[in-house]
Amino acid sequence: MIRRCDSRELEIIYAIINDAAQAYKGIIPADRWKEPYMSRDELRREMNEGVVFWGYEEQGELVGVMGIQHVQDVMLIRHAYVRTSKRHQGIGKKLLCSLREQTTRPILVGTWADAVWAVRFYEKHGFRLVSPEEKDRLLSKYWSIPERQIETSVVLADSKWFEARQRRRSGLCLLK
Ligand SMILES: CC(C)(COP(=O)(O)OP(=O)(O)OC[C@H]1O[C@@H](n2cnc3c(N)ncnc32)[C@H](O)[C@@H]1OP(=O)(O)O)[C@@H](O)C(=O)NCCC(=O)NCCS
Fold it and tell me: Strand locations in the chain, DSSP E?
């Protein structure tokens, strides 16, 4: 079952994130890794700043979460995590599909450049990497993250975002 999480579920969301984030250990740059990967305070701040978590429940227990955040004209997918023991069973796919149905806005997702499995996961679902220049611009425009995280991240966008960009570019050409 997929359902919206409650802010009172901070503890279980925190546990899922930090269990799943073990995947990053030894993979992302050492200066970006810390334990816990995300503190309770950081998670609380993210929720207060508008990240809404949706969760996948199995036998009454949350085993995966994905956050969404509406920022300006886009929807961001934030913090997608499935418990290590529950991966490769299609839970991530179900969460992603459910979140995509909730918006008509273009969708962007940022992840670590070194998290090749995450890039592959989104690509499998029709997202495409934006160029490095575009990535820097988008991360500064829509996210509030440190410069070093911008350097070490990638951004993927859905087809709606690429179509909107194409229309903007065509519009600019007509104006010239
Ligand atoms: C990225 C993540 C959320 C995906 O969750 P997931 O539940 O494993 O996702 P899915 O099961 O839908 O798909 C993952 C893979 O399992 C495969 N799979 C799905 N159902 C399967 C099944 N029944 N049997 C075997 N493989 C299966 C998918 O084809 C996919 O293959 P791929 O690795 O070639 O892309 C999860 O790997 C995770 O939490 N990773 C650590 C944190 C992370 O990287 N988060 C992303 C940050 S934005």
Answer: 2-4, 52-58, 61-71, 74-82, 107-112, 128-129, 153-157
